[in-house]
C-alpha cells in the first residue's frame, strides 16, 4: 500500500486479444538496508492455467530485473511452481512479513551471485523505486506467439 509497482516490470500476457495473465514487482526493503523486489501478484486466467503463461511472464521479466541491477526477488508462493523459474525457499527465520504468512512459502531468487548473503529481517515498504527504475501505473504489453500459447514477449 502506498508504493507503486516498478512499471518497467509490469507485464500482461495476451491471447487472441484477451488478457490472460499479468505480473508485477514492487520495491521492498529487507531488514535494515537491503533492497529487493517483491514479485506479485502473478495472475493467470483459469482457461490457460498449466500452459506456461505464468512461467513465460517470469522468464521475460526476471532477466529484465537483473539488467536493471536488481539483485534479489522475494515472493510468497508454492515452491513446486516457482522453483521452475529458479526460486528456492528462503531459510526459515530469514525473512519476516507483517501479518500471517507460512514461513515455508517465503521464496527468493538471487539475480546476482551472493545477493542473499547477509539479507534478513522484516520486509517492508521501500520509500522510492531503486535507481534506474521508475514507479507508475503504466505497464508493458506482452505479445502472443502464433501458436496461441500465451506468453510474455516484447512490447
Question: Could you explain how this protein is built, in words?
Answer:
This protein is mainly beta. Helix content is about 10%, strand content about 30%. It has helices at about 55-65, 80, and strands at about 10-15, 20-30, 35-45, 70-75, 90, 95, 105-110, 120-125, 140. Strands 1, 2, 3, 4, 5, 6, 7, 8 and 9 form a nine-stranded mixed β-sheet that branches. Mean pLDDT is about 85; it is low at about 135-155.
Give descriptors for this structure:
155 residues; mainly beta; 9-stranded mixed beta sheet; 2 helices; 32% strand; globular; disordered C terminus
Short account of what is shown:
This protein has 155 residues and is mainly beta.
Structural class: mainly beta
Shape descriptor: globular
Helix content: 10-25%
Number of H/I helices: 2
Q: Residue-averaged pLDDT, rounded?
A: 85
Tell me the radius of gyration.
15 Å
The main pleated sheet reads as:
9 strands, mixed
Q: What is the H-and-E element order? A: EEEHEHEEEEE
Cα end-to-end separation: 28 Å
The portion of residues forming beta strands comes to 25-35%
Are there runs of 5+ residues with pLDDT below 50, and where? 135-155
Number of strands: 9
Amino acid at each position: 500500500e502506498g508504493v507503486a509497482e516498478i512499471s518497467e516490470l509490469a507485464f500482461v500476457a495476451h491471447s487472441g486479444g484477451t488478457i490472460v495473465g499479468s505480473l508485477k514487482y514492487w520495491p521492498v526493503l529487507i531488514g535494515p538496508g537491503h533492497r529487493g523486489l517483491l514479485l506479485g501478484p502473478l495472475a493467470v486466467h483459469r482457461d490457460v492455467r498449466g500452459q506456461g503463461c505464468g512461467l513465460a511472464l517470469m522468464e521475460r521479466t526476471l532477466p529484465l530485473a537483473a539488467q536493471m541491477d536488481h539483485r534479489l526477488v522475494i515472493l510468497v508462493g508454492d515452491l513446486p511452481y516457482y522453483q521452475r523459474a529458479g526460486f528456492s525457499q528462503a531459510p526459515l527465520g530469514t525473512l519476516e512479513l507483517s501479518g500471517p504468512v507460512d514461513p515455508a512459502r517465503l521464496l527468493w531468487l538471487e539475480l546476482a551471485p551472493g545477493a542473499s548473503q547477509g539479507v534478513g529481517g522484516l520486509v517492508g515498504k521501500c520509500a522510492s523505486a531503486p535507481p534506474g527504475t521508475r514507479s507508475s501505473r503504466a505497464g508493458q504489453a506482452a505479445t502472443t506467439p502464433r501458436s496461441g500459447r500465451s506468453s510474455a514477449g516484447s512490447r
